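User: Please predict the structure of the protein below. I'd like the answer in structure-token form so I can feed it into my own downstream comparison script.

Assistant: Understood. Taking the following sequence of 349 residues as input:
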Amino acid sequence: MSAHKIAILWRGDRETRAKATPANNRYHRIFEELAARGIAAEPAVYADDMADEVYTQLMTVDGVLVWVNPLEDGRTRAKLDAVLRDVAGKGPWVSAHPDVILKIGVKEVLHRTRHLGWGADTHLYRTAEEFRDAFPARLQSDGPRVLKQNRGNAGQGVWKVESVAQPSDPARLVAVLEARRGSAPKVLPLTDFMAQCEAYFGWGGCIVDQPLQLRLPDGMIRCYMAADKVAGFGHQLIKALIPPPQEGSDSPAAQPGPRIMHGPDAAPFAALRAKMESEWTPQMMQVLGIAAKELPIIWDADFLYGPRTATGEDTYVLCEINVSCVFAIPDQAPAAIARLVAGRLNGGQ
């Protein structure tokens, strides 16, 4: 028998919990790699109405790996995060810990780290009043902007905003497009759109404002990190924030391309890997006050292409960090996850 036992936690219903095995879910490769290292892992399917049951289970393991989106079908992680904090405070380690997620897995990180090499002209609004006072002038002077609610996933609460009328126009019309799949552009008065956004100050606590990246059609690079080392890359021609074709937002032409996975040694992303491992991740840890042992075992940073340099090299702009539910992952990632789990179980980072 293994000296260590961990749980892999994801969201599901009671039937899924009853039938879950290490082999019948999308995390089966991770279960396999853990078993190959002699680590016993068990499913821990979670729902809010099973919180007490899952809590009892988690108190019998040495560590917990968590895959739960921050916002899904109207459900948040509020109750789960309270459970995980309690568990972590009594012994088992949790990855990612909810308090670490609140540092790096939220859009506010884009503002806190804007001075790093991955940053852009990023602003933060903490109140509706501040938003109303500053955003209209910024939109007019700086051109199209992208607004992001602090916590969310799948493009929810991420909007491209651009003016379609002169400032003297009383209606001050704007064209807006949400990043959620299937969204269609709409035109409305800026004041109406901003009023809709005020709800984001409740759940997330702030709104982040970045410039629209003009190389968006070149795709997004997802840099998968196993703690502080790159575990692989995924490149995808995305459609989020790009106006849909005439056929409509649900047409095949409006759907994103496949995410093409690459290993950590992929030549096209060598410069990005070097930046992430030697500069940006250590700098982020210092800015946010995150110790090496607190880094999530698996997380990713999503980059858009920034302007090319004078000599033609690519630059990269961070558009978000994902920590709560990082999947799918490159083929190399399950082994990296298992290696890091073994290290933490044995007292390392």
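That's the full token string. The two ends are 24 Å apart (CA to CA).
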